[in-house]
TrEMBL record:
<feature type="region of interest" description="Disordered">
    <location>
        <begin position="1"/>
        <end position="24"/>
    </location>
</feature>
<dbReference type="InterPro" id="IPR009061">
    <property type="entry name" value="DNA-bd_dom_put_sf"/>
</dbReference>
<dbReference type="InterPro" id="IPR047057">
    <property type="entry name" value="MerR_fam"/>
</dbReference>
<protein>
    <submittedName>
        <fullName>MerR family transcriptional regulator</fullName>
    </submittedName>
</protein>
<feature type="domain" description="HTH merR-type">
    <location>
        <begin position="26"/>
        <end position="94"/>
    </location>
</feature>
<keyword id="KW-0238">DNA-binding</keyword>
<feature type="coiled-coil region">
    <location>
        <begin position="84"/>
        <end position="111"/>
    </location>
</feature>
<dbReference type="Pfam" id="PF13411">
    <property type="entry name" value="MerR_1"/>
</dbReference>
<dbReference type="GO" id="GO:0003700">
    <property type="term" value="F:DNA-binding transcription factor activity"/>
</dbReference>
<keyword id="KW-0175">Coiled coil</keyword>
<dbReference type="InterPro" id="IPR000551">
    <property type="entry name" value="MerR-type_HTH_dom"/>
</dbReference>
<dbReference type="GO" id="GO:0003677">
    <property type="term" value="F:DNA binding"/>
</dbReference>
Length: 112
């Protein structure tokens, strides 16, 4: 569901491939919606909920990264199981906070 690397490579300064960067906003709203099997309104609702804040192109169009699409896919899965969009956004946000706290805790334990 998340994009593969068949896109034409574009490089950033230093020659790094932008498509290797999970946070590079490579996907238009239409393409992102197609990849997720969702509507553009679904993506707008995630933006309105504050879960995903897509970058904007020079023309003001939303652009999504692979990282954002993975988050949207997690929300979509919960919504497909009957969870309301706002509740699904909150669940995903709390899961991410929990994982980050666990990562920090593990890091502190290994530093001792």
């Amino acid at each position: 569901m998340i994009p593969d690397q068949r896109e034409t490579p574009a490089t950033v300064s230093g020659g790094a491939d932008k498509f290797d960067d999970d946070h590079y906003p490579a996907y238009t709203m239409g393409r992102a919606a197609d990849m997720l099997g969702a509507t553009q309104n679904f993506l707008r609702s995630l933006d309105e909920a504050g879960l995903i804040t897509p970058q904007r192109s020079a023309g003001g169009h939303r652009r999504y990264s692979r990282h954002q699409l993975r988050i949207a896919a997690r929300v979509r899965e919960l919504v497909d199981q009957g969870t309301a969009v706002d509740a699904a956004c909150r669940i995903v946000s709390l899961e991410d906070q929990l994982h980050e706290a666990q990562r920090q805790n593990d890091e502190l334990r290994t530093a001792e």
